[in-house]
Each structure stands twice: as structure tokens, then as C-alpha cells.
Amino acid sequence: MKVKIQDGLISLVIRLAWEDRTSFEEIKERTGLAEHEVITIMRRELKPSSFARWRKRVGGRVTKHRKLLEKHLKPEKRSRRSKMGLNCAGIVRI
Questions:
Q1: Which string of DSSP letters, residue by residue, matches 60-92?
Q2: pLDDT value for 48
Q3: Whole-number pLDDT of residue 83
Q4: 74 burial level (CB within 10 Å; 0-12, 13-18, 19+)
Q5: CA distance 73 to 42
Q6: Neighbours of 23 (CB within 10 A)
Q7: Residue 21 to residue 26: CA distance in whole angstroms
Q8: 3-state helix, strand, coil in the chain (%, to 5)
């Protein structure tokens, strides 16, 4: 069953999907559309070459999936804290 989506929502989805820092999870929170629905909209609304470029770009982005981003950032935060001499509470070790 196809759902009719308003033009304003389509524009918002396309803008959010092109943004590097907006994850699919955030798009779902803001629009109610799952990742596969966003991909369907992008495929339908963009030129084939633009869609291919977008898919290639999204495929290499850690920031488009919140879980991958969190996994990617956690080791960096830990190593930075130990280099700065801070424990988890942010208190300087003596």
C-alpha cells in the first residue's frame, strides 16, 4: 500500500537525508519514516545519477547510523580522557 506524502515532508526528508550529521534514526524521530522509506523517497524523487551519488555517500558515513557513530566515538573519548589525565568524573588525578 502506497502512502501519499506531502510535498513539504518530501523536501524535508530529502534535505535531512543529504545532511551528513543527520542519522536515519533522527529522520525517523522527526518524520516517522524508516530508513527503507527514506531510500524509497530518495530513489523516486532524485535523478538516477543523484540517487547513486547519495547512496555511495551514505554507504560510507558512520554518522548516518546512530549505533555506528556511538561505537566509533567511544574509544576516542576514552583515549582523550586518559591523555588529559582525567578520570570519568572529570577530576584531575594527582
A1: T-GGGSHHHHHHHHHHHHHHHHHHHTB-TT-PB
A2: 97
A3: 52
A4: exposed
A5: 28
A6: 21
A7: 10
A8: 70, 0, 30
How far is 81 from 77, CA to CA, in rounded Å? 6
Please tell me the distance from the alpha carbon of residue 47 to that of residue 53, in angstroms, as a whole number: 10
pLDDT by 10s per residue, the chain, length 94 = 455 778 889 999 999 999 888 888 899 999 999 999 999 999 999 999 999 999 988 886 666 666 655 666 665 555 554 555 444 444 444 4
Residue 93 is predicted with a pLDDT of: 42
| Cα angle value 40/41/46 (rounded, 5°) | 110
Q: How many CA atoms lie within 13 A of 22 on its CB side?
A: 16
CA-wise closest residue to 17 among 46, 7, 69: 46
CA distances from 16 to 29, 60, 74, 85, 86 (A): 12, 17, 25, 38, 36
